[in-house]
């Protein structure tokens, strides 16, 4: 199933997404911000989110993006779940070039494999 939603932000400048682990990502609101839902992923602007990791979304005046950090090899070794951007689980040994969500007991990371 694919869905598209166009939203009106009034005077707000960002649409902020809060994940279940507390990490926030803000997407700038443009005159034609489009939100697309496909399978279990949501795309807003240039950001993509796994629906199961989203806690809430709201309009805000400030960029509230948080928790941008590098993932360590130790965190990757203790990964409980690795998903591609389509929400499909991936074995660590089968990761190819691309962007992945890595979930450990302590934190969730978004990583790029080059």
Can you walk through the features of this model?
- It is a single chain.
- The chain has 114 residues and is mainly beta.
- It has one helix at residues 73-77; strands at residues 2-6, 14-19, 24-28, 34-38, 41-44, 47-50, 54-60, 81-84, 98-103, 108-113.
- The strands form three sheets. It has a four-stranded antiparallel beta sheet, with no helix packed on it.
- A hairpin with a 2-residue loop joins strand 4 (34-38) and strand 5 (41-44).
- The mean pLDDT is 82.
Question: Notable features of this structure?
Answer:
114 residues; single chain; three-stranded antiparallel sheet
Explain the layout of strands and helices.
Blueprint: E1 2-6, E2 14-19, E3 24-28, E4 34-38, E5 41-44, E6 47-50, E7 54-60, H1 73-77, E8 81-84, E9 98-103, E10 108-113
Antiparallel strand pairs: 1-4, 2-3, 2-7, 4-5, 5-6, 8-9, 9-10
């Amino acid at each position: 199933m694919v869905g598209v939603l166009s939203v009106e932000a009034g005077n707000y400048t960002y649409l902020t997404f809060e994940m279940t682990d507390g990490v926030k990502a803000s997407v700038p609101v443009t005159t034609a911000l489009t939100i697309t839902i496909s399978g279990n992923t949501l795309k807003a602007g240039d950001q993509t989110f796994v629906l199961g990791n989203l806690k809430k979304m709201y309009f805000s005046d400030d960029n509230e993006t948080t928790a941008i950090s590098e993932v360590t090899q130790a965190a990757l070794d203790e990964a409980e779940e690795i998903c591609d951007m389509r929400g499909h689980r991936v074995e660590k040994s089968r990761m190819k070039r691309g962007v992945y969500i890595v979930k450990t007991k302590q934190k969730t990371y978004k990583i790029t494999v080059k």
